[in-house]
Design brief:
This protein has two domains: 12-49 and 309-408, Aspartate Aminotransferase, domain 1 (Alpha-Beta Complex); 55-307, Aspartate Aminotransferase, domain 2, CATH 3.40.640.10. Helices cover 36% and strands 14% of the residues. The chain has eleven helices and 15 strands. The strands form four sheets. Strands 2-8-7-6-5-3-4 form a seven-stranded mixed beta sheet, sandwiched between helices. The chain has a four-stranded antiparallel beta sheet with strand order 11-12-15-14. The longest helix has 28 residues, at 308-335. The structure holds D-malate. D-malate (MLT) binds at residues 43-45, 109, 187. D-malate binds next to loops.
Length: 409
């Protein structure tokens, strides 16, 4: 008899976004007349077409694959040098990283989950609350937690509350932890972390010999020049942090799939005998065994994001989505709701009207306003009483969402 991985049985219900999808399908089946005017501001999925520079590069790459002289088969598992160099030159210029520290992948969701392959059991793991659910669920799947309590908090994880009081940047844990997940600009709260706040985390990690898994998937949306774009802008981070980045939200690659992890040579972990081992060498080994690289046309498309035309087209996309975020912030503020985020991130995090839980708010928005939002409690117990509105949409839809918010709240 084949035994299953029992850890999967500890997972709470469905993954958040498919669960929302199920509820929305049930609603549209019951209300077919409302399906056409439903506006989805739930999952943070881009809506605008791929930049022209990206499309041109991908077309060209496909044509190369159609010609015997320029055809390519398996690529390097860690990514083509042209893209690793472009990433290092554009994102990490003047920072202590080189192209050899960049590992190209099919996106940050996979990377943040897969990274657990190289860490052993018994690590004390800290996550923020609310949190991007992938960090928690992948730790559950691999057996790093016990069961969940009635609030959905898993035994064995250290939860770091992110609240309006701490501007959604958690205080350092009182206890020693080995691995810390941080995501800034933050999903779901849209908060950003200051240089001093990140410095405190880097100092903590160095002092406690911990590793920070820093998810910077929303870096492109930072508007404030004081906000760090990379953890490696913080002195010492090259000794204790891995950085996850994605082309999903800046270049519109949610369907195309491409991202990367930066892993400096100087980040190490301990083997069971206490020997220090380079995390980069383990990840490289893991990648060679389990991955054959992102596809060639996709990597050429990602490279085009760094061309002059690509940069201009990406900034127009960012400007579009951040314009949406500003409108959503304005509408929620006008109604008298407490609004957070949306200034350096494409997510607006809003306190529910008095007396409504996050799922009450989800139902109200769906039934009354015909708009899909994400309930804050879906991201963790500390998200209860909030909802998230994604700014990834057309301008027309966002204006309509603002009107409906004003009408129904
Ligand atoms: C979200 O809505 O939180 C994101 O789209 C999820 C993701 O990027 O995987």
């Amino acid at each position: 008899m084949a035994q299953i991985n029992d850890n999967f049985l500890k997972l709470k219900a469905g993954y958040l976004f498919p669960e929302i999808g199920r509820r929305v399908s049930a609603f549209t089946e019951a209300n077919p007349d409302k399906a056409a005017s439903l506006i989805r501001c739930g999952i943070g999925d881009v809506t605008e077409p791929l930049p022209l520079a990206v499309r041109e590069a991908m077309h060209k790459a496909v044509d190369e694959l159609g010609n015997r002289d320029t055809f390519r088969g398996y690529g390097p598992e860690q990514g083509y040098d042209f893209l690793r160099n472009a990433v290092a030159d554009n994102f990490y210029q003047d920072l202590p990283l080189t192209a050899a520290d960049i590992f190209i992948s099919d996106g940050s969701k996979c990377d943040t989950g897969n990274i657990l392959d190289i860490f052993g059991p018994g690590n004390k793991i800290a996550v923020t609350d609310p949190v991007y659910p992938v960090y928690v669920d992948t730790n559950v799947m691999i057996g790093n937690t016990g069961e969940a309590d009635e609030d959905g908090r898993y035994e064995g994880l250290v939860y770091l509350p992110c609240t309006a009081e701490n501007n959604f940047v958690p205080a350092l844990p009182a206890e020693k932890v080995d691995i810390i997940y941080l995501c800034y600009p933050n999903n779901p709260t849209g908060a950003s972390a200051t240089r001093d706040q990140l410095k405190a985390w880097v100092d903590y990690a160095i002092e406690n010999d911990s590793i920070i898994l820093y998810d910077a998937a929303y870096e492109a949306f930072i508007q404030d020049s004081e906000v760090p774009r990379s953890i490696y802008e913080i002195e010492g981070a090259e000794k204790c942090a891995l950085e996850f980045r994605s082309f999903s939200k800046n270049g519109g690659f949610t369907g195309v799939r491409c991202g990367f992890i930066a892993i400096p040579e100087t980040v190490t972990g301990a083997s069971s005998t206490g020997e220090r081992i380079s995390i980069k060498s383990l990840w490289s080994r893991r990648t060679s065994t389990k991955f054959n690289g992102a596809s060639y046309p996709v990597q050429r498309g990602a490279e085009a994001i760094f061309s002059e035309a690509g940069k201009a087209q990406v900034s127009a996309l960012v400007e579009h989505y951040m314009g949406n975020a500003a409108l959503l912030r304005e509408a929620c503020t006008e109604i008298g709701l407490s609004v957070f985020g949306g200034e350096n991130a494409p997510y607006v995090w809003v306190a529910c009207p008095e007396g409504l839980t996050s799922w009450d708010m989800f139902d109200k928005m769906l039934n009354d306003a015909n708009v899909v939002i994400t309930p804050g409690s879906g991201f963790g117990a500390a998200g209860e009483g909030y909802f998230r509105i994604s700014a990834f949409n057309s301008r027309e839809n966002v204006i309509e969402v603002c009107n409906r918010l004003k009408k129904h709240l």
